[in-house]
Design a protein that fits this description.
By secondary structure, the chain is mostly helical. The chain is built from 7 helices and no strands. The chain has one domain.
Length: 137
């Protein structure tokens, strides 16, 4: 297998993922989740409490349409995470295109991510913080 063939194959995954995310973002930008039409979060439906992802579609819509304040009101964690994920995707794409190997994500990063999500979920369900961290209704 030639280096060009290997690089072409390696770049396919980030390109396909990027296309899927771009199509999903376009759909959410064009079909406003603030107006309904999307399924209800199962955690919210079962418990009545918002999970870490609640408000994520509305935040994605607001980011895609340039409303940063609206996105922050829907889900501050995802408002920060989505641009970070986009930068990490570009890094992945560049590394794949230049033939550099993927880096292993240290276990500590995964643990920290889980801790942040759990803490955010707990904090956004404290009534005093709901106006700051809970999805705006």
């Amino acid at each position: 297998m030639t280096a060009a063939t290997r690089t072409d194959r390696d770049v396919r995954t980030p390109v396909v993922l990027g296309a899927v995310v771009a199509a999903a973002t376009l759909l959410v930008a064009l079909r406003d989740p603030h107006e309904g039409g999307y399924p209800l979060c199962p955690v919210l439906a079962l418990t009545g409490m918002p999970c870490a992802g609640c408000g994520g579609l509305r935040a994605a819509h607001d980011l895609a349409t340039g409303d940063l304040a609206g996105a922050w009101a829907m889900n501050p964690l995802l408002t920060v995470a989505m641009p970070v994920a986009a930068v990490l995707w570009v890094v992945w794409l560049v590394r794949a295109a230049t033939g550099r190997p993927a880096r292993q994500v240290p276990v500590g990063v995964w643990v920290a991510l889980v801790v942040v999500v759990v803490v955010f979920t707990v904090l956004r369900n404290i009534p005093a913080l709901y106006g700051v961290l809970g999805p705006a209704v």
